[in-house]
Design brief:
Its cofactor is K(+). This protein is an alpha/beta fold and 753 residues long. The protein has 22 helices and 32 strands. An eight-stranded parallel β-barrel has the order 6-7-8-28-29-30-31-32, surrounded by six helices. A seven-stranded mixed beta barrel has the order 12-13-19-18-14-15-16. Strand 18 and strand 19 form a beta hairpin.
Length: 753
């Protein structure tokens, strides 16, 4: 039986696209146009005798009744007498406001008018029994098709590469706005269809479920008695468009993933991304070791470093990739309009060297100190020194021997010594590992010498000791003043009677948008406070949450104002300059702190201006607005041919939306992107304890296991990054079959029976 769609009428509360990302979409975001274009729309009256099935629609997080109706015309194309009034196109248009919003926010009525010639008589109701499982599934199917047609004009704007994926995303949103929990349970109870797993191929799965239910009905004679209730069991249900098959959708998802992230080797399924910076330039082997450990993508954060550093990093990445014959790609994150604390005044250039002591103060392990020539780079990867000293004096270093005692006078004027324990060849000569058994403070210009029988010989000077990172230590109850003017003295209060710490923030957005009573967070939520007062140049914050012994707040730490409506520009002037560099050096660009469709429009314009049709785009979801507008931003980004992906930036996302919601948020992002066939990057604090201390937590291991559902998992840099990459690679690509094989089979003896 061939069904021909003649008309679809809609009276809808557009805000019903709610629950998580859908619930806050603006009413005008999803349009409901009069059906034109390639979708045939023939005006016709619809007779509605009685509602056939009722669901609960989600509106602003609440459930409201929604009736889905199907009907057929009579021979004269006129409604039958009695019952209810006819639903015409004129009624439909009058029910919708000029802005496309519904005047009746309580229900949605979808009139599906079909015609099948002699196969169906005019008196046959397509959907009859409200409690019938097949009726409900068909009603959902009709609702999904209606949503696609409502957004036909939006879909037509998508690039052909994303047309199927965009349509499936619309299908997913249509399904998501219904409360189908009971339907899920009913389908699962008979082992037929799991609505939780059909996101990548919604229409095909619904059609397959309908077909199987109809096949079941045709196999049981008793079921044929229900034909009068609305369902013809002798005809198959074939309304699924050929291009929406499950195999086609799977291939599209796989293709989108490979276009953005690149191909994988050795039957791997998940990419590993590692953030690198200045340390990659200082080490000759770091990038090579990372590639050998399983890294397939390198990330550079444009908020740090400069083009000369980035160029050198990318040069080394490409060289190592070619040498090892391991393909990899480069992602560069634009800094975006992130709020950060300003630079505090630099501290003294002094390094503290401390041995490990027990509770009684006795030395258990001497401090390990690396000595190497100036410009030699970091120590070998297998060494983990407590301190690194660069020496200006090649003659001094070349004459050192094992067990020599290198003497010096520290910053306090105390005599100290370092005992040479090991010797290693390095790029610029030779390096040594030395032991220090007493706490010492070493500064630039400190003289090192060795005493022999003939007196002192050769003097080496300590150089390039970094300045001590300055910070303010905040405790609950403290006052913090944020100043707009970076020239102010950060360690002094302008009013000597006010005991307050000071930091700066150069962004005017912060001072223009906040108000007293707003919560404020620092350093990814490690410190929280409440804004007590504001002025054009200062903000006074009362600290409400910090560590028991206080929490350090230093330079360039994040600032979040979750409840404020800060109007950021999508791409800053720095971002636009960096984009020119990214265009010629990287494979992907990460767009930070996107909040709304306008940000995507600006990005598309800049890419088109530079004719960048192949540069991958990664949308970083790290704000409440970005999460709520994700489906709409994806549809906007799909208007361009550029490979597209999404990064779940869980650090800022948790602070902006609340820690307790993070798990649900990342699940929803995964579901939306799965429906849109867009690859997802799982980021922030992945194996963080392992990266920093060398020992993972149990929760980190299970977090990584959950990350297998993403297309890529990202690690941030740290002291034990190589070990972390190796561990991550093992977890991501371990086979469940291997685990099962390790389980001892249960052998039952015959005497037990």
């Amino acid at each position: 039986m061939t069904l021909r769609v003649l008309s679809i009428c809609v009276v809808t509360d557009q805000a019903m696209l709610s629950n998580y990302a859908i619930q806050t979409a603006n009413p005008s975001d999803f349009t409901f146009p009069n059906l034109r274009g390639k979708f045939t729309h023939q005006p016709c009256r619809i007779y509605v005798k009685r509602p056939v099935v009722q669901f609960l629609a989600r509106r602003k997080g609440n459930l409201v009744p929604m009736t889905i109706v199907s009907a057929v015309p009579n021979e004269s194309d006129e409604p039958e007498r009695g019952g209810s009034h006819a639903c015409t196109d004129d009624i439909m248009l009058s029910a919708l406001g000029n802005d496309g919003s519904s005047k009746d926010t309580r229900k949605e009525v979808v009139g599906f008018l079909s015609h099948s010639g002699a196969d169906i008589s005019q008196s046959t109701e397509i959907l009859g029994n409200p409690g019938n499982l097949l009726d409900k599934l068909k009603a959902v199917h009709l609702h999904v098709l209606a949503m696609e047609q409502w957004n036909a004009s939006r879909l037509e704007l998508c690039h052909r590469n994303y047309l199927l994926s965009a349509a499936n995303l619309i299908h997913y949103l249509a399904l998501k706005c219904l409360d189908v929990e009971q339907l899920k349970d009913d389908l699962s109870s008979i082992g037929l269809l799991n609505l939780e797993t059909i996101n990548p191929y919604v229409l095909a799965s619904l059609s397959a479920g309908i077909q199987m239910l109809e096949n079941l009905k045709s196999n049981f004679p008793k079921c044929k008695e229900s034909v009068g209730d609305g369902i013809s069991s002798c005809n198959s249900y074939k309304q699924t468009k050929g291009e929406f098959t499950i195999n086609t959708m799977r291939k599209k998802a796989s293709s989108n993933k490979e276009l953005l992230l690149g191909p994988l080797q050795d039957e791997r399924t998940t990419h590993i991304m590692v953030t690198i910076g200045q340390e990659a330039v200082e080490s000759e082997t770091l990038i090579t070791d990372l590639l050998k450990s399983g890294t397939t993508i390198f990330r550079i954060n444009c908020a740090h470093g400069n083009p000369s550093v980035w160029s050198e990093i990318i040069r080394r990445v490409k060289r190592s990739s070619q040498m090892l014959e391991k393909p990899c790609r480069v992602l560069m994150d634009l800094a975006g309009p992130k709020l950060r604390t300003g630079n505090l005044k630099p501290g003294p250039c002094v390094m503290k060297i401390s041995p490990k002591k027990n509770a009684s103060g006795n030395v258990m392990f001497p401090a390990q100190v690396w000595l190497s020539p100036k410009g030699a780079g970091p120590p070998p990867a297998h060494l983990s020194p407590d301190a690194v000293l660069y020496i200006d004096g090649q003659d001094f270093l070349s004459k050192l021997k094992l067990a020599d005692a290198v003497r010096f006078c520290d910053a306090r004027g105390k005599q100290m010594k370092l005992k040479i324990s090991k010797k290693f060849p390095v790029f610029a000569g030779v390096g040594y590992m030395a032991e220090c058994s007493r706490t010492a403070y070493v500064q630039s210009g400190t003289e090192l010498y060795v005493k022999r029988k003939k007196g002192k010989f050769s003097v080496g000077l300590v150089v390039d000791v970094p300045a001590v990172e300055q910070f303010v230590r905040l405790r609950a109850g403290d006052l913090l003043i944020i100043s707009r003017d970076s020239s102010d003295e950060q360690d002094e209060s302008p009013d000597p009677t006010v005991d307050a710490h000071r930091v700066t923030c150069s962004s005017g957005y912060l001072f223009d948008s906040v108000k007293p009573g707003d919560p404020i967070a620092f350093d990814d939520g490690k410190i929280w406070g409440i804004i007590q007062g504001t002025s054009l140049s200062e903000i006074i914050v009362s600290i409400t949450h910090a560590g028991l012994r206080g929490t350090k707040l230093g330079s360039e730490k994040s600032i979040n104002i979750p409840d404020s409506n800060i109007r950021f520009e999508g791409l800053t002037s720095k971002d636009l300059m960096d984009l020119d560099f990214v265009a010629t050096h990287a494979d992907m660009v990460g767009v930070s702190f996107i909040r709304e469709i306008r940000d995507i429009v600006v990005l598309r314009q800049e890419l088109e201006k530079r004719k960048l049709r192949n540069l991958g785009i990664v949308l970083k979801i790290e704000t409440k607005g970005g999460f709520e507008k994700l489906p709409l931003m994806l549809l906007e980004a799909m208007k361009s041919p550029n490979p597209l992906g999404v990064m779940i930036a869980r650090g800022d996302l948790a602070v902006e939306c609340g820690w307790e919601r993070l798990a649900d948020l990342q699940e929803e992002i995964l579901s939306i992107c799965s429906a849109a066939h867009i690859p997802v990057i799982w980021a922030t604090q992945v194996l963080e304890s392992l990266v920093k201390s060398g020992v993972p937590t149990r929760a980190e291991i299970t977090d990584v296991a959950n990350g297998r559902r993403a297309s890529c998992v990202m690690l941030n840099k740290g002291k034990h990054i190589l070990e972390a990459v190796s561990t991550l690679d093992t977890i991501l690509h371990s086979s469940s079959a291997k685990v099962k094989a390790e389980l001892k089979p249960l052998v039952l003896s015959s005497h037990l029976f």
